[in-house]
Here is the input.
Amino acid sequence: MNIIARRDGVARAVYAGPASQRVVPNRNGRERMQVEHEEQNHRFVVRLPDGEAELGYAPQGAEVLNLHHTYVPSTARGQGVAEVLVKGALDYARQNGKRVIPTCPYVQAWLQKHPDQNDIVAAG
Here is the structure.
């Protein structure tokens, strides 16, 4: 985890580990995406040329994150951005001893395709 300070003066945690930083194709060739965790805004963000992609969450107590929505700008859809966001959120949860509740349909579908990641899902 790296901490960066942005021009707006807000420090943000950036997860650039192997699972949260991926090289994915886009219109301009290949580009590396970084997932930033904006804890005060309860979201994970990838900044793109055409806007921000995000995975929003709601804390459920101190140990659980309800992953409730993803958004990717239309020009960046189908390029793996949402998957990078999910992986970044799950990496963060694992590194911080948290569990997740996947209420976002995309996160639910992703977890169905990756059953090896279900160990982090909170029992419901």
User: Anything to note?
Assistant: The two ends are 30 Å apart (CA to CA). DSSP finds two helices and nine strands in the chain.
